[in-house]
Amino acid sequence: MKILFATSEAFPLIKTGGLGDVSGSLPRALKALRQDVRLILPAYPAARERVARLRVMAELELPPFPGPVRILRGRLPSTRLPLYLVDAPLFFERAGDPYRAPDGRDWQDNALRFGLFAQAVVRAALNQAGLDWQPDVVHCNDWQTGLVPALLAAHDERPGTLFTIHNLAYQGLFPPQTLAELGLDSGLWHIDGLEFHGQLSFIKGGLVFADHLTTVSPSYAEEIQTPRHGYGLEGLLAYRRDRLTGILNGIDYEEWNPQTDPYIHTPYSSDTLEQKLSNKHALQEAFGLPVRARTPLFAFIGRLVEQKGVDLLLDAVLPLLAQEDLQLVILGTGEAALERRVRDLIATFPDRVAGHIGYSEGHAHLVEAGADLFVMPSRFEPCGLNQMYSLRYGTPPVVRRTGGLADTVVDSTPATLKDGTATGFSFELDDPLALREALQRALKLYARPAAWRRLMQQGMIRDFSWQRSARAYRDLYKSLIRQPH
Question: Whole-prediction pTM value?
Answer without folding.
Answer: 0.90
